[in-house]
Amino acid sequence: MLAALRTRRAEDMVAGYIFLTPSVLILAVFIFIPILLALYVSFHTWSPASQVGLANAPFVGLENYARQISTSSIERTNFYRAVKNNLYYVLGVVPTQTFLALLLAVIVNQKFLKGRTFFRTAFYFPSITSSAAISLIFLYMYQSNGLINQVLDRVIPGYTPFNWIADPQLGATGLIHLVLRQFGLTIRTAGDWATTQALGLTLWDWISGPSVAMTAIMLLNIWTTLGTLMLIYLAALQDVPGYVYEAAAIDGASNSDMFWKITVPLLRPTTLFVVTVGIIGTWQIFDQVYVMSAGGPQNTTLTLAFLIWTRMRDFSTGLAAALAFILFGIIMLFTLIQRRITAER
User: Which of 14, 88, 318, 323 has the greatest CB tally within 10 Å of its CB?
Assistant: First the structure.
């Protein structure tokens, strides 16, 4: 009897490995092997356009990483400019889309709301629409004679229409710089500290805020991702027991109290997931930048993912691979930080 059980267990184990083999092979061929190959390339100088095979590519150690982090070069300047742009993008998009997604989920979860299915579909529809197509539509809307400028021209007295994406002056100006300019503070009047160099950029550049062009892309991204995050929150809200709210109502809790003291704490694991997904997605922003601005104007919409693409385009494969692993490290760092802040203690 015992021998039969052992034989059956061994057969089940063999069958399990057989069923797992196709998935493991797919992961190895399309994920693990390319990652190891990219890591190998990041320590070498190699171009697909050269006649030198990858196995014979010169080994340069950490030079590809140093040229982007510490060694003074154009690669270092572009890297930190992309980090600055990406950082403002993350800080602007992630909290906004998280809060709005939760708010929309609470609204469409109300039983008294008529047409809830319609609103859920309408809010989710942009998330499943082609990103390139939506980017092109918004690109036309942001033109000088586009819909957005026409609306603002009628609403704001004295408004001067401009191209939000391609304007070399206003489009490339940071929002914080625009606010400071209203108080007469510019790089010329700020003092010597403004021209102090820090990581390839001046301190004045670091406090610029997102440019007008980057802000336009941020608004687009928030609108397109709200639907997916709303559905995640909606699923979590429907798992909250109704008697919790009934007990709170009996105790005299207001709607505001129930939202902040019941709904938000119970959705903490969901918020952790939403913020994690948001951080990963915003640090990897590429398609909207590629379609709408190509990193301009004046590199104010240059992001790390787009910078990787430009270096691949220029056949600087070693630099691109090194930058990809640096980006991976940045995403891991920010993910650990937000988990430390938002995770349950």
Answer: 323
